């Protein structure tokens, strides 16, 4: 038996693996394929393409799309919802970097 670095089942645990077709993704979100295409047009998510050119979505992308769906369902225009999510993501990243930098600035305590 040949050793492999990843087993096929490992892909199911990978949040970034493009496991879902557009139809299945739309069904899971309770949205339309047009909604998912719009998220791509506003550059919120960029689905990977299968060899046949079909859009494929990861679980991570579906979580982002779900957040957009929540905002749109509450009355936020889709373009604004996409911008809000992008800004939230940028803020979270900036806060993470800030915390890392603060951690490096702290003097180490000696024991």
TrEMBL record:
Molecular functions per Gene Ontology: DNA binding
Pfam families assigned: MerR_1 (PF13411)
UniProtKB keywords = DNA-binding
Q: Which domain of life is it from?
A: Bacteria
Q: Which GO terms describe its biological process?
A: regulation of DNA-templated transcription
Give the InterPro entries listed for this entry: DNA-bd_dom_put_sf, MerR-type_HTH_dom
Tell me if Nucleotide-binding is a UniProt keyword of this record: no
Q: Which residues does the UniProt record annotate as the domain HTH merR-type?
A: 19-87
Stated name of the protein:
MerR family DNA-binding transcriptional regulator
Instruction: List the source organism.
Output: Streptomyces montanisoli
């Amino acid at each position: 038996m040949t050793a492999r670095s990843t087993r096929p089942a490992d892909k199911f645990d990978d949040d970034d693996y493009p496991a879902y077709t557009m139809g299945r993704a739309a069904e899971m979100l309770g949205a339309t394929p047009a909604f998912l295409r719009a998220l791509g047009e506003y550059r919120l998510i960029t689905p990977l393409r299968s060899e046949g050119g079909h859009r494929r979505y990861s679980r991570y992308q579906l979580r982002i799309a779900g957040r957009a769906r929540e905002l749109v369902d509450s009355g936020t225009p889709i373009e604004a919802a996409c911008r809000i999510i992008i800004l939230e993501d940028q803020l979270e990243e900036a806060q993470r970097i800030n915390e890392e930098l603060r951690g490096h600035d702290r003097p180490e305590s000696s024991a």
